[in-house]
Acyl-CoA thioesterase II (Brevibacterium yomogidense), 295 residues
Amino acid sequence: MDATADIDELQRVLDLRRLDTPGIGGEEHNFQGWNQPKPGDVLFGGQVLSQCVVATSATVADDRPIHSFHGYFLRAGSVFSDLTFGVDVLRDGGSFSARRVQAYQDGQPIFTGMASFQRDEEGLDYQDTMPADVPAPEELPSLTEQLAHIDHPLLEGWVFKRPFEIRGVEPAIQARFQGEQKASEMFWVKTVAPFGHDRVLNAAALAYVSDYNLLEPTLRVHGIPWYTPQLRMASLDHAMWWHSPVDFDDWLLFDLTGPRSNNGRALGTGRVFSRDGRLIANVSQQGMLRLKPKS
């Protein structure tokens, strides 16, 4: 694996090109995005999320970092179709700014979202406590090490090429189920090579990686491996709240739960802590989850 190449690909995903024409929906700002190759030729939702963070941030003053984002996945995207992002300026107030973004392919919106930005300021300060007695990342095997002996196209073409190293507290369940059936899990994550300290890019990278595992606690509680042939999953909506700057050059802890699955849907929620115990973000996602009966 070439860690530098994987990081270069992430940087390319986040390097949008501003266009001189209005967005397809008449939006004031318009950006061209790059599609990351993926097995199955369907866009990774985290790619689109991260690019929406970059596109909306590019229309806001530098002293107003993103603090929340809410979006809906409308259609499956293709790695073969041009991808653009139209951004509307909704409001610039004394402290807060609001933006609407639509991602388009083939003249149709595939994703729609709203982002809010705020100047840093002093205020009441409280946070949840980081989980206690979590093994340090140095004590855990990487996801790649756990799965190295398994031959599967999604591993070689996707998981092993990720720009992030993941070290789970629970055993991996990609190819077969193992460990306890419970609706929770934790994992450490950081970039596979130095990423830098740009605040917008780190916030966008967190949006990217947050789409990896949010529904995995639901699979874990039901004892279902990812690569079950009858399993069908897709992200429906995604919400994030950034509480402080993100730094992917050090380990971050994701603490995930799957509080509800029913009606062909599953809800995943997560808290993200820095290594020194700061709660830096919260994230939630609902997805389609169907287990078709064996024929």
